[in-house]
Design a protein that fits this description.
The protein is of the alpha/beta class and 236 residues long. The protein contains seven helices and eleven strands. The radius of gyration is 17 Å and the shape is globular. The structure holds manganese (II) ion.
Length: 236
């Protein structure tokens, strides 16, 4: 019997204690969990694994308890927490997944992604992503002091909010052709992702795309119990 949870887009910051409480409540309610998949943008920003902010310590504590309960934890980076690395995950024995990874879910090979790469119409974002994923850029960024990085993260967040408010709705959703291409490249008939904040199960031709939701006043979660999958929410 396999019991797995898939969540993404919690966008945790010091301003979201209710979402941390929601996560704890969800984990408690679910009981024994075999696998917990954190599919990106768990944090609103990530300035490096050396960040010693109370939030990063509290989250590691929560995950340590989860891991000690026998749960395997997996993490996919989102566009917010793209600098998160294996050394932070080592604190609670979690595994860093690549940008697109196939995993057996409910009896089927399933592709897991954060989802930003599926929004291929958002060319400005993809241009920024290419820069921010350049190893040299990352080394330069991580060499700055924590304080400098905090300021930069604030600045980037403000810029990204402004850019998003000027973009058409459909630009920030997935491109259907990109979805088809990615799924056929990986030979899967199921894709699970977050990022777009549009929770839904989309039937495709002999396939399915499941979109996780963001956490605000509700928490969104996809649960695998053996062969069944359920996308559900509960109020915080
Ligand atoms: Mn995202």
């Amino acid at each position: 019997m396999t019991h797995s949870l898939f969540i993404s887009d919690l966008h945790l910051s010091e301003d979201t204690p209710q979402i941390e409480q929601g996560l704890t409540a969800l984990l408690k309610k679910e009981g024994d969990i075999d696998r917990l998949f954190l599919l990106g943008d768990i944090f609103e920003a990530w300035i490096g694994d050396d960040d010693d902010s109370p939030l990063t310590l509290r989250f590691a504590d929560t995950m340590t308890r989860v891991a000690e309960g026998g749960t395997q934890i997996f993490f996919t980076r989102g566009n917010r927490d793209f600098l998160l690395g294996q050394s932070y995950l080592d604190r609670f024995n979690a595994t860093l997944l690549g940008d697109s990874v196939c995993v057996e879910v409910a009896g089927e090979s399933t592709l897991l992604m954060h989802g930003d790469l599926l929004c291929s119409d958002d060319v400005d974002y993809l241009a920024f992503r290419a820069i921010a994923h350049n190893p040299e850029w990352q080394v330069e960024m991580l060499a700055k002091s924590l304080e400098e990085r905090r300021q930069l993260a604030k600045h980037l967040r403000a810029m990204s909010k402004e850019a998003a408010s000027n973009k058409a709705e459909d630009i920030m959703d997935v491109n259907e052709a990109t979805v088809r291409t990615v799924m056929s490249e990986h030979g899967v008939s199921r894709l699970i992702h977050g990022h777009t904040h549009r929770p839904c199960r989309h039937p495709l031709q002999n396939a399915e795309r499941i979109v996780l939701g963001d956490w605000n006043n509700t928490t969104w979660c996809l649960r695998e119990r053996d062969e069944t999958l359920e996308l559900f929410e509960f109020k915080l």
